[in-house]
Amino acid sequence: MPHPLPLRIRLAGPILLACSTLLVDTGAAQASETSAERNELVRYDIPAQELDSALTAYGIASGVQVLYDAGLTQGRRSQAVNGRMEPQQALRILLEGTGLGSRFTGERTVTLEAAPATGNDELALAPMIIHGEKIERDLQQTTSSVAVVDGNRIDQARLQSLPDTFRMMANVRDADFVDSGFIIRGINSEGVGGPAGRPLATLYVDGVAQTMQGARRGALGLWDVEQVEVLRGPQSTLSGRNALAGSIRIETKDPTYAWEGAVRGTTGQLDTRGYAAVVSGPLVEDRLAFRLAAERSHADGGIDYPFFDGMPRLDERENDDYWQVRGKLLFEPHGPGDTRILLSHSKSYDSPAYSDVDGPSAGVDYFDREWGNQPSPQYSARLSEARSTLNYNTALEITQPLAEGLELTSLTTHVKTRTSRPSVDLGFDGDFDEQQTAQELRLNWNNPQYQAVAGLYVNTGEDKSQARRNIPGELLGIPGLTLETQDRSKTKVDNYALFGEMDWHLDERWTLIGGLRYDYEAQDFQSSGAQQLLFGGFPLDASSTASDGDTHYDAWLPKLGVQYQIDASQNVGFTIQRAYRAGGTATNTLTNEVYDYDPEYAWNYELSYRSLWFEDRLRLNANLFYLDWDDQQVNLPQMPGDFTSDVVINAGKSHVTGFEIELGMQPLAGLDTFASLGMAKTEFDDFSFVQNGQALDLSGKAFPQAPEWTAALGADYQHASGWFIGGDLKYTGTTTSRSLLEGLEEDRLPAYTLLNLRTGYAAEQWRLTLWANNVTDEEYYLYRSEAPGYQIAAIGRERVVGATLDLSF
Known about the structure:
Elements: H1 4-24, H2 26-31, E1 42-46, H3 51-62, E2 65-67, E3 81-85, H4 87-95, E4 101-106, E5 109-113, E6 129-130, E7 137-138, E8 145-150, H5 151-156, H6 162-165, E9 172-174, E10 182-184, E11 187-188, E12 201-205, E13 208-209, H7 212-216, E14 225-232, H8 236-239, E15 246-252, E16 260-268, E17 272-284, E18 288-300, H9 314-318, E19 319-331, E20 340-351, E21 356-358, H10 377-383, E22 388-403, E23 406-420, E24 428-446, E25 450-472, E26 481-505, E27 510-535, E28 538-567, E29 570-581, E30 584-588, E31 593-597, E32 600-613, E33 618-639, E34 642-665, E35 671-686, E36 688-691, E37 694-697, E38 709-718, E39 723-732, E40 735-736, E41 748-749, E42 752-762, E43 766-773, E44 781-785, E45 792-795, E46 800-808
Parallel strand pairs: 2-5, 12-15
Antiparallel strand pairs: 1-3, 4-5, 6-7, 8-14, 9-10, 10-11, 12-13, 14-15, 16-17, 16-46, 17-18, 18-19, 19-20, 20-22, 21-45, 22-23, 23-24, 24-25, 25-26, 26-27, 27-28, 28-29, 29-32, 30-31, 32-33, 33-34, 34-35, 35-38, 36-37, 38-39, 39-42, 40-41, 42-43, 43-46, 44-45
């Protein structure tokens, strides 16, 4: 496979050259502006509300008179507008999604129109409002590195589930196994090496923080989704202990007071098929509305199991099966713009296909796509689990305006997840039961000088697991006997936090950013185990163990930064933030002893740049970061290759350094393009340990699963006739396989590039899309172990071609 350096030169060179040219030509670009208002720098703090009220606030702030027919704005709501910007840009954000456009008829007057104005406004990029920081901001006003995929791109690119969105983002990818989370800036969301303690990055669905199993296989479908946000880097001031690597937010669409609905059908290779429907409308005009959405999908995983035929849980392992139903109810007792109550509930089932395959030790090539050919196929069946998850999410959000610019929000959430984990032959059985209940009270304050949020957070959760294994004596070298084992564990976690963050606008150019969180966590851990040796069903020997422990942790998590507005379209910022993840208690499965591991801490230093060019037709954003990490928790198998023997070890020091550069552009009507380039260089600075009696030192090594270079590129073109075409490409650089943590030699997995294409025709109420994923049928590894006698791998999905029909009404 090619070394990443040539791609780095091909991608980084033109992008950096374009950036340099834009910076040199700043004066020339601004000189082309014909309106004096476009160079004005005005502070806006206008919350989302009835459009009439928002336009009044806009006129007061900007000094621009807005002229329109009274009936034009009836029943319409505005977007929130926050930050310093020119009046034209602020008005475009405010009107986004209303179906209205604007036209300046003088230096201080503007007219609203029932259709977008002609000219360059048609090519201006739509504003992106970020919700994940709990202070609603336009993307251009954030200092955090946020990758956004909105509903339009989800529909255009036929993105089906959360991992599909990662192909649009640099420094974000899915992990190597279906049971190992996702990766942001080279850091696994469940901890480097595997699950360790609490998550390092949390997934939120409509504000509900998902359990670890729910983030692996839960409400991950993208049908009827408004927006996906990936916040790269620590978000600990506002999101707490589980945000050292970042956070991901899925926001689904809310109920509407106008009737709307849609259905979708999909078919394709590998028995790909799917169905989805949504309906939304009013129950009481301008007071009560509902939304119901449902989706179901199925696909063959593309892996053959020649020795597993007829086994009772084979279907769950070899096929992708998913469904979700979701309901939302919106109640605004005094009409839009006042008290707002939103209730949502969803139930989902997810059983993703596994991507594990045999290698040369089983007499096959990795890309023969077979599993179960190892010398002891019965043993492989006993170890080959077929996990599936039922996930329930409930959220009640109440928003109450208290005064001009002052708003109180109460968010109550509950999540319950049950994961079944039998082996395909049912010789091993078990499950995970997880649930969390959380309450957040949040006060938001917006005025021309301050944007602030302060809140109280309480979360109580319980994770339980149990497992039973029946191992034939032939596999242990003692024919005629049977070993039965049972294990149970329960961890109760209570988390309390006070948090706050403020943007203090010192003048029209300088903003001071400050935040602080106090986080407290108490854990109560219990575990028990039993095993017995049987002969002909009669016990010969039996033993049992039981243990418990409780611990608590607390931390102060400050944030400090500054932002400078260069002009109406450019700003730079710098932030420093502390992040942490609590320690914990666990059981050593080999010794049956309970042990504690320490909390981990990190300081993140981040430089941001935001800019819009060519009358907002080009967006160029960049972040440069350095993460300094102490006592990093790493999950390691005590017996090489056996992750059931995992223990958590604290590495002394490590660091991550890198950047993201992101561009979005609409060069001509109907053409939407994007590009993203990322580098994340990870390194253990001080990490040594003993594994199976052998001393290992990983100091100077990169984290497993952490590609140093990633890049994404894409475009979608919609012709006025209805015909459309598009595609996206994702490059992932070389990575170190997680087998490094199994005492094996370092194995570098080759870089790979995935290309996805689509085309079709869109009419007013229907859309037909022909699509192909992994068009070049790229063969690539997600994991590989070259252990003598047991060579296995996890590989990516092969090419799939299909068609999707959407109907709307």
